[in-house]
Amino acid sequence: HFPRTLQRSGCVFFPTVTHSLRYLHSASSGIPGFPGFVTVVLVDGQPFSYYDSVVRRELPRQSWMVQTEDPDFWESPVRGVPIAHQ
């Protein structure tokens, strides 16, 4: 419970939450049918996005991301996955 003075002032507080972000990169060559470069992005241990050198675009890995994000969001190299491949 918040102190009464803070409740009356209309201040809103959000608890601090820690998250993890991991980029897993894999490179290979000479394996038929397997991409030469793969990246999986994990947030809190859950798959967030996937990129490989065959598909050559970042793909969302959570259904809510497909439903809420603008489709053009996944075409932008800003997040760095396609850049890492180059």
Automatic annotation (TrEMBL):
<protein>
    <recommendedName>
        <fullName>MHC class I-like antigen recognition-like domain-containing protein</fullName>
    </recommendedName>
</protein>
<dbReference type="InterPro" id="IPR011161">
    <property type="entry name" value="MHC_I-like_Ag-recog"/>
</dbReference>
<keyword id="KW-0325">Glycoprotein</keyword>
<dbReference type="Pfam" id="PF00129">
    <property type="entry name" value="MHC_I"/>
</dbReference>
<dbReference type="InterPro" id="IPR011162">
    <property type="entry name" value="MHC_I/II-like_Ag-recog"/>
</dbReference>
<feature type="domain" description="MHC class I-like antigen recognition-like">
    <location>
        <begin position="18"/>
        <end position="76"/>
    </location>
</feature>
<dbReference type="InterPro" id="IPR037055">
    <property type="entry name" value="MHC_I-like_Ag-recog_sf"/>
</dbReference>
